[in-house]
Amino acid sequence: xxxxxxxxxxxxxxxxxxxxxxxxxxxxxxxxxxxxxxxxxxxxxxxxxxxxxxxxxxxxxxxxxxxxxxxxxxxxxxxxxxxxxxxxxxxxxxxxxxxxxxxxxxxxxxxxxxxxxxxxxx
Length: 122
What we know:
Layout: H1 2-20, E1 30-38, E2 41-52, E3 55-62, E4 66-76, E5 79-86, E6 92-99, E7 102-109, E8 112-120
Antiparallel strand pairs: 1-2, 1-8, 2-3, 3-4, 4-5, 5-6, 6-7, 7-8
């Protein structure tokens, strides 16, 4: 019985360490489902980040903007910065990171500033 309690304690301790460890650049690689919020409006967005060293590229798509690309992406000091470029929408200056276990930040487009949040697609 004592060995089972000891094993459970170790497993729970490792799980707590895993979830408490700050995300690394590699943790943003993959697909994310998010929401852009600006001027009282929201738009669902799908983002796919590719990572090569500190360089971040990828794709983005929302019903409002249409498909686009993630360019000039960087991860520095725990912050993601990039430009979202679209064929039929003005470019979006995009920044953010992880805070309180959530991925999100701000964006600027068409002279306005909005916010975004995202969760990893399952």
